[in-house]
């Protein structure tokens, strides 16, 4: 079962950002697929859970750092700091523009599908699967 959500989220973002997202997703996917309740789900519900897991990982590994970098950049500019480098990335207007666009698009998706970001956190696979099984009953 290919994950179109994962592909859509990581397409064009480069290996430095995309690879950790994909690796983390495939690791979580393995545990999700071992979950008994997940195994008993209909195919559409399984896909929904895996799509939300992809959103979760993208949120954790891309959106939160981009959002934080944007805030840090804004605060640094107010303090008179003109050059900022975070890892291999220079935080400049171009980076902030891209980061802002990515975060806006992500939050537009979550808003459109009424997904609260607090429900994206995966601290426990079983609880995550159970929550999204229950939540998906609204759609089924």
Which key terms come to mind for this protein?
140 residues, mainly alpha, 6 helices
Q: Could you walk me through the main structural features you see in this protein, from its secondary elements to its overall organization?
A:
Helix content is 71%, strand content 4%. The radius of gyration is 17 Å and the shape is elongated. The longest helix has 36 residues, at 43-78. The two termini are 20 Å apart. It is mainly alpha-helical and 140 residues long. The protein has a two-stranded antiparallel ribbon with strand order 1-2.
Low-pLDDT segments: none
Which term fits the overall shape?
Answer: elongated
Radius of gyration based on Cα positions: 17 Å
Mean pLDDT level: 88
Number of helices: 6
- Which structural class should the secondary elements be placed in? mainly alpha
């Amino acid at each position: 079962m290919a994950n179109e959500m994962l592909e859509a989220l990581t397409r064009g973002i480069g290996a430095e950002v995309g690879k950790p997202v994909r690796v983390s997703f495939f690791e979580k996917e393995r545990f999700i697929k071992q979950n008994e309740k997940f195994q008993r789900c209909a195919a559409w519900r399984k896909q929904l859970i895996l799509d939300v897991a992809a959103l979760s990982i993208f949120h954790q590994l891309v959106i939160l750092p981009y959002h934080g970098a944007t805030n840090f950049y804004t605060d640094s500019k107010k303090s008179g700091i003109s050059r900022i480098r975070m890892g291999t990335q220079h935080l400049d207007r171009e980076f902030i523009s891209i980061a802002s666009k990515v975060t806006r698009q992500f939050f537009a998706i979550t808003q459109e599908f009424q997904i609260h970001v607090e429900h994206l956190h995966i601290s426990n696979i079983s609880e995550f699967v159970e929550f999204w099984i229950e939540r998906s009953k609204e759609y089924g």
